[in-house]
Design brief:
By secondary structure, the protein is α/β, with parallel strands linked by helices. The chain contains 15 helices and 15 strands.
Length: 367
């Protein structure tokens, strides 16, 4: 029995991370003689086997990652291999560099044990400490892949070996659930629209523009519109962004989700969805995985990189353009005019991405 540590931002109140974990766990279900242990942020995943007993650790969730380094390192020392993966984990924030995020894989590399960096994203690296640490762990990893070409280029620019460019694991979730995606056909009499927004960079003009778009779709097409949060944590609750829009919507009925749905529930919603207007990366990514076209607002670089990766730049909206309600309405109508062509093109590029992701699965099996 081999013990594998999977380290990321799992269980962090973000559906994107949940979807990555969902897809990664599916790979391990097909591998025998492996004990998978998840190291994430909250108590539910700390030092436990996935789905097993929850460890009762007497510290608040905000302090968990910082104050339990010793326990996590003990788990690493007992493990046979480690996978660092899941989302944009190589990222400098306002208050910290990547030291905590690479600590466990550094320990594994010091112990000369197998380790891989899997489908990683690199949103931003501007601290010299972070650049040095990322270059070091990449050079010492047995396998490295990035979820998009832009992230791979950032690692190359550090002078590190070129990573494989594969894709985000969450792309595979529909197939894991037994959903066979086909190009969507447009029925203007039965429009189901999903809005998924984020507080970051959401200003008064953008709120008014998005409210104008939602009102237009509901009034002209009698569209059923749902606002679905992807992240529900104290540091960034998408429901707050949706509440700003809600204050502007007074004449038409709209649905606002009170809770973040599970991965399965969100995918089920997408199977009935015509169009997604999204800011979070995984609202766009999961929509694309089932062939649903998306108007993506480029509030972060990873959203931009993904839309370019699937060749859907025509429906990537800058923050400036997202503040123009008339522009958003024109873009939605433009998409409707070439709807099935766009859906078919998205699925074709998703299939190419899935083929590249076989490299990741092979690397995990070899680990």
């Amino acid at each position: 029995m081999r013990r594998i540590i999977l380290h990321g931002y799992y269980g962090n109140g973000n559906m994107g991370d949940d979807a990555i974990l969902y897809a990664t766990e599916a790979i391990f279900k097909k591998i025998s003689n492996v004990e998978l242990r998840i190291v994430g942020h909250p108590i539910a995943f700390m030092n436990t086997t996935l789905g097993g007993h929850i460890a009762k650790i007497p510290f608040g969730k905000r302090l968990l990652y910082k104050n339990h380094v010793r326990q996590m390192l003990k788990q690493v020392d007992k493990a046979d291999a480690l996978i660092l993966g899941g989302g944009g984990i190589f990222c400098d924030t306002k208050h910290s560099d990547v030291t905590n995020d690479v600590r466990l894989i550094q320990r594994m590399q010091e112990n000369h044990k197998p380790n891989i960096i899997y489908a990683i994203g690199v949103p931003s690296l501007w601290r010299e400490t972070s650049k040095r640490l990322v270059k070091q762990v990449v050079e010492n990893a047995n396998y490295v892949s990035c979820r998009d070409p832009t992230s791979a280029k950032k690692i190359e620019d550090l002078g590190a070996p070129s990573p494989h460019v594969t894709g985000d694991p969450a792309i595979k979730v529909p197939k894991i659930l037994g959903i066979h995606s086909e190009p969507k056909k447009l029925d203007l009499q039965q429009l189901n629209i999903c809005f998924s927004l984020r507080r970051d960079n959401l200003n008064k003009l953008m709120v008014e523009a998005l409210a104008k778009l939602a009102t237009f779709l509901a009034t002209k097409y009698n569209a059923k519109i749902k606002f679905i949060p992807m992240r529900t944590r104290w540091f960034g609750d998408d429901r707050a962004a949706h509440n700003f829009i809600k204050e502007k919507l007074r004449t038409c009925p709209f649905s606002f989700f009170d809770e973040r749905p599970s991965v399965e529930e969100f995918i089920e919603e997408l199977t009935y969805t015509t169009l997604t207007i999204g800011m979070p990366l995984h609202s766009t990514l999961l929509s694309a995985s089932v062939g649903v076209p998306c108007i993506a607002i480029a509030y972060t670089e990873d959203v931009t990189s993904f839309m370019r990766y699937i060749q859907a730049e025509d429906y990537l909206i800058s923050l400036k353009d997202a503040c123009e309600g008339s522009f958003l309405i024109e873009k939605a109508q433009e998409l409707f005019n070439s709807y099935t062509v766009v859906s078919r093109k998205i699925l074709k590029n998703i299939e190419k991405m899935e083929e590249k992701m076989l490299l990741d699965e092979k690397a995990i099996r070899q680990l």
